[in-house]
Amino acid sequence: IAVNPIFEGKFPVEEIDLYLNGEFIDSIKRPPFEMIINLNIPEDQSEFEIKIKLYDSIGNTAERSVVLRVE
Description:
By secondary structure, the protein is mainly β. It has no helices and 6 strands. The strands form 2 sheets. A 4-stranded antiparallel beta sheet has the order 3-2-5-6, with no helix packed on it. A two-stranded antiparallel ribbon has the order 1-4. The two termini are 15 Å apart.
């Protein structure tokens, strides 16, 4: 799955951290803040959560999560 977060803020983004089902995947420290995540989800699991944690240039953080369902 392609992850390409869209964000808006007063200060430039310095880094984003990506998590899949609560497990840290990777940090991206320069634009473009895009990543491809391979979903190796067991057949009996029909949903998963992607969380992005953002850090700006003055140390502010923000987090957003989305739950996706696979059918």
